[in-house]
Amino acid sequence: MSPIAAPEGRLPVCVVTGFLGAGKTTLLKRVLRDPRFADSAVIVNEFGEVPLDHDLIAASEDMLISVSTGCLCCVVRSDLTETLLDLARRRAAAEVPAYARVVIETSGLADPAPILHALMADERVAAGHRLQSVATLVDAATGAAVLERHPEAQRQVMLADRLLLTKTDLAPVPATLETALAALNPAAPRRVAAHGEVDPEWLFAPGSLPAFLEANARHTEGVASIVLEREAPIPALALTLWLQGLVEHCGPRLLRLKGLVALAEAPEKPVALHAVQHLLHPLEWLDAWPGTDRHSRIVLIGEGIPRHLPARLLAAIEAEVRDS
Amino acid sequence: MTPPELRDLISDALALWQVPGKVRVVEGRVALAAPDGTPLSVHAAEPADRPIRWWLERPGQRRPCTSVLGLLRGLRNAVGAGEGEARRARVALPEA
């Protein structure tokens, strides 16, 4: 069994994104030759553009789903949600090999958010799939200029769990690129890949929530990561209302939210929060805290969200809940 | 929530909605002006008014709000910042 097999019976979905020419396909070709990851179904969205659904339909003849060993090769004529469901159905019916994970390679021009939405918003998909990781490839030679000019590339970096710098055999990683990446996503661990070489374990491992949460608040032009910490456990109702309030008022400006929260009703088990824009992933109860630190930590990445707003809103809601 | 804390929260909300304006505390109330110049005022309700917690006032109109989220919703409408994306969240406690 693969070392990152699906927990809880849900299939992990790993998203690989990056701007045009970043080397996604080259990387995946190499990575999927690794016998440990041969049991992967790969969805390639060559022509995908936002919104994803339309693009997948439009590009149906060019969208390939295959297991890296070549055991499965088919053309899909539906959007991503239907594709995943259909693939799962065929897997259950033994019409395709029993793949252990799904890898989605996005178009270079894709904003990953709609893809993550598709994975999180559809209950049928979420029942059988679990978003495991979002890896963004960045071309070391052209990355700084691309990030400066293309908002899609910025969002690919902002939504990543990990960043992989490619083509470093052609050019060293410039300081301007390091600075840009640190500003856009300070929490994402970075690695360098030359000639598409990277440890698949690292590429496909579950996103590291603690690493994300260890990020300090950083600010750049309109984009900020905001860290909210609470020593006292938070009432479940207050957390619910706070999430609703954030989503209501921040809308698409809330790019990503992750957190480990101690609820007043069950402080011994942390609840993990994941949200992408206005979509909140079903809350996940962990068996135990990852370390001795048991205070609530939430990190938001957003565009134009005042840095104190989340904490002030939570404090106001908590006060009302405790006073009711 | 004290009037200065309410002022700070409302200031943040206006910035989020990209509505210009100055928010001040005046005689225990939070005062601001809508972009069209309409004066607005927010203050805490008396305990005897429960479940009303906040009053949002403009000339000739007094709107009761039962929560800070309701207050923000009313304020957003009052300053012409449109409606937010109303969503329901649910926090299910772990099974015992």
UniProtKB/TrEMBL annotation, chain A:
Domain of life: Bacteria
Catalysed reaction equations from the record: GTP + H2O = GDP + phosphate + H(+)
Family annotation (InterPro entries): CobW-likC_sf, CobW-like_C, CobW/HypB/UreG_nucleotide-bd, P-loop_NTPase, Zinc-reg_GTPase_activator
Matches recorded under Pfam families: cobW (PF02492), CobW_C (PF07683)
Alphabetical UniProt keywords: Chaperone, Hydrolase, Nucleotide-binding
Family: Belongs to the SIMIBI class G3E GTPase family. ZNG1 subfamily.
Protein's UniProt name: GTP-binding protein
Known function: Zinc chaperone that directly transfers zinc cofactor to target proteins, thereby activating them. Zinc is transferred from the CXCC motif in the GTPase domain to the zinc binding site in target proteins in a process requiring GTP hydrolysis.
Location of the CobW C-terminal domain: 223-318
Source organism (scientific name): Siccirubricoccus soli
SMART domains, per the entry: CobW_C (SM00833)
Automatic annotation (TrEMBL), chain B:
Protein name: Uncharacterized protein
Originating organism: Siccirubricoccus soli
Tree of life domain: Bacteria
